[in-house]
Design brief:
Order of helices and strands: EHEEEEEEEEEEEEEEE
Helix content: under 10%
Oligomer: single chain
Largest sheet: 5 strands, antiparallel
Structural class: mainly beta
Shape: globular
Number of strands: 16
Number of domains: 2
Radius of gyration: 18 Å
Length: about 230
Amino acid sequence: MHTNAQAAADLSLPTGCSRDSPPRLSAPATTALAPVSDSNTHMDAPAAADTMELAAFQTSEGKASRMGRELRIQLLDGRTAVFKDDTTPGMKFGVPRYAGYLKAICSHAIHILQYEGSGAYLVVDDSTGDSTIVFGMPVVSPDAKRFAWTSQAGEANYNSSLIEVWGMVGRKPRKEFSFESETWEPSDAVWRDSATIDFLENTHSSPGDPYIKTPARLTRTGTTWILFESPH
């Protein structure tokens, strides 16, 4: 799924992170997403995210900054993508916070805090401003050809328990693998090599109980991803 954080038409996209002749782009628009959910996110998360954003700015090589309620990202073609806070309660609520520069895949990550839940992430091309929505922080593979992400349902079961792998086709992310579990919640994805992802399966008897964390693995053979679940 792509957002309209910035529109770009009739582009010939290079494979590198810079270009000799940048395309003409339409002016970037603001971004607001529908909520995913987790109680009290709208009250507690923004303050914590502000602190994390300050640390994330250090990775941006001076390209990301904040001016009040606006997150600004300087694109490599000289234009600026602007993402504005919308604190309208309910479905319109969307508070973008910079999450890091994923330079290996020529992208910036933005965490969109929502009224409830853990929110969404935008993977924003550092040259065009084109963006893709995912629902966990991307973790880039060692060969920079893919990224993985995980999300947990949480106590209120607002989010999905998902693990996904996306491949970079040129500069555009394309989903390769997705698995949603009804019995465990994935977290802490780590690439062991460019074809192997280790992660944790989190289970508990009832909401509020401590999670039991069990190692699991996702591997790629040819074009197929194979999930090795732990016995529960």
